[in-house]
Amino acid sequence: MLTFLGGISNCREIVALCLLKHFGFDDLYKLLGRYLDFRFTRRGNAVCSYDVSFETGLYEAMQQVYGIRLVHLRSVDEIYQAIREQRYPVIRVNSFYMPYMTVYYQKHHVYHYIIADDHDEATGKTRVFDDLLSFYDRLDGKIWEEAAQWGDLDAFVFDLQQTAKPDEAGWQDFLRQQSERLYRDYLSESTESVGGSSLLSCRDEIVDWDRLDCEKRNQRVELLLRELVSIPYLRRGFSRYAEMVHGQGRFTQEAVALANDWQVLFNTFIRQIYMDHSCIPEITDKLRRIHEQERRLVQANYDFFH
Q1: Of 94, 128, 159, which closes a domain?
Q2: Of 159, 178, 197, at which residue does a domain stop?
Q3: Which residues contact 1 (CB under 8 A, 6 or more apart)?
């Protein structure tokens, strides 16, 4: 049986983390040292014309540290074969077709990742695991088949044939490199960077929204909120990294506080849309303070390994 990790990453990476846990890689949280990641890039002058992405390097780290490679599955038949072989295939689905994803079902076309761990040939039902939505139950196989074939099929399994676990020296080398990558990216002054300057660019974008009428302001906040939905999860993942690498000290306490502050900010976005429509100054001030928190953590994490 798979184990819930409690929403510590975005949907594409949480499936990998849950599989790492299942296959006995209990030090997996050490891979999350770049989870203070954020990329915000403006594309032209159109309304809400920007890219938001997260470059955590998790899958590359899995290969570098454990030797785990991905084997991509090319058809639904190959997915069912992987289920029969108990290889726990990861499947990208369109939430529009998944009944338990009530926010999106029959409303919005949004990609999401699940794990299939069993299929009952007699009933035609597949057991599906979804950490972010705390779902672990059976549904008709035809449902996920349709959801998986909306667009190009994206499914894979872990290749565990050449895996290994690093010794202490190997871990220290990886963790040092990871801290250097985060430090370099986050503190870069380029607006294309991961982290700090992108976070400030996002804040500057929102400042201007206070001049708009209520309806337009809320539309833009809602669109941005959809893009930022993964950040509270990623920051909780970073706090797991902090606890495993830095122990129960001030650094971890600040990492936990940061994750909580991102959740408060997320809730403020929701309040702006549905309740109090004058939260833009509060949102931008929270982003400024969060940026300061993250800079301190990035610096402290770098100093810890140097």
Answers
A1: 159
A2: 159
A3: 117
Say if CB 31 and CB 68 are below 8 A apart. Answer: no
Say if residue 140 is in the same domain as residue 230: no
Identify the CA nearest to 261 among candidates 242, 234, 229, 235. 235
Say what the pTM is: 0.93
Domain with 100, as residue range(s), is 69-159
Nearest to 194, CA basis, from 33, 6, 18, 11: 33
In terms of domains, do 73 and 61 share one?
Answer: no
Residues 288 and 187 in one domain: yes
Judge whether 39 and 54 are in contact, CB under 8 Å.
yes
Per-residue pLDDT tens, the chain, 306 aa: give them: 999 999 999 999 999 999 999 999 999 999 999 999 888 877 666 556 667 888 899 999 999 999 999 999 999 999 999 999 999 999 999 999 999 999 899 998 999 999 999 999 999 999 999 999 999 999 999 999 999 999 999 999 999 999 999 999 999 999 999 999 999 989 876 555 567 888 888 888 888 888 888 888 888 888 888 888 899 999 999 999 999 999 999 999 999 999 999 999 999 999 988 888 788 999 999 999 999 999 999 999 999 999
